Amino acid sequence: MTVTVSKATILENIYKNFYDLLNAITGFSSNIYPEFHDDVSLTDKSSYPIFILDSPDVSEETLTFGKTSVSVTISIDICTTTPKDTDQYASDAKDKIETSKGTLADMGLHMVFLDSTDKDVIPYGKIKVHIKTLTWRFNFIHTKTNTY
Amino acid sequence: MPTIVKIQGLKEYTAFQIRLPKEMEKEIGVFFMNRFINFVRKSARRRAPRWTGALAESIKKVKGKNKRPMLVVESPYGMAQELGFKPHFVQLWRSTRSGNLDVADWAASKGLQPRISIFVSKHKPFVRPAFEAALRNVPNWISKSTQKAIKQAGGKK
Lengths: 148, 157
Hints:
The structure holds 2 protein chains of 2 kinds.
Chain A: H1 10-23, E1 32-33, E2 50-53, E3 57-62, E4 67-80, H2 83-99, H3 101-106, E5 109-124, E6 127-143
Parallel strand pairs in A: 1-2
Antiparallel strand pairs in A: 2-4, 3-4, 4-6, 5-6
Chain B: H1 10-47, H2 54-57, E1 59-63, E2 69-73, H3 78-83, E3 88-91, E4 95-98, E5 101-102, H4 103-109, E6 117-120, H5 127-155
Antiparallel strand pairs in B: 1-2, 3-6, 4-5
């Protein structure tokens, strides 16, 4: 269930919106964690796939005299033990966000687009973990707090 | 009859040439560097050997000279893990320098039952493999940053 983003709840509600959208995808449910979560065991092959949703990064700039534009990036790391599964889940995540742009716009998040993808391969003992990182960028506009 | 040669767009091209170095500096010097360091930081954190997680959490991005991003490993044993050490014995009562835990706690967590000391010989580099993994993506990142800089320089009036 998505929630409206406001100036006071920008970080947690953006995280919640993306978490809820991605959690609804088949295969993602109950496997999405923040970074360094205690429940995540990276050395156990049976615990994959693992999806790590990072906290969003924000930067502000003045849009108009009374409004501030916040540029936000949020990324998800898709960790699996085969490259084919990594690409499959990455496609699912990309498609979900793409088709949910209207929902995100209703929550106040505009111009959502996939900014970049990165890949990495990390050996953990006997298993090789393939990681695909998807980063989305979008804007949020709120009224400026004037101090004068 | 004189021939008049008119060059159209020269003013815009000159303005583009003036803006391009600044946009390139912004894209390559700032955005690309931040992206590179963020990738290395994330990858190094995942590759770092883990027990309490203190080593991985000590890998941070900071601002160095001239506001350039820098990667630092604040943990006291980070260098030993990265660069290696002479194999040696460590007494059980010694501190691991990872919180208030000593070597006996580490041995117990690994299912070992030594009496006096343990022999340590293996180290696991984590920053250099992360750096090498990032280097594979560099041509793609630089190409994207350059395209963006050209677009930014050309787009502004």
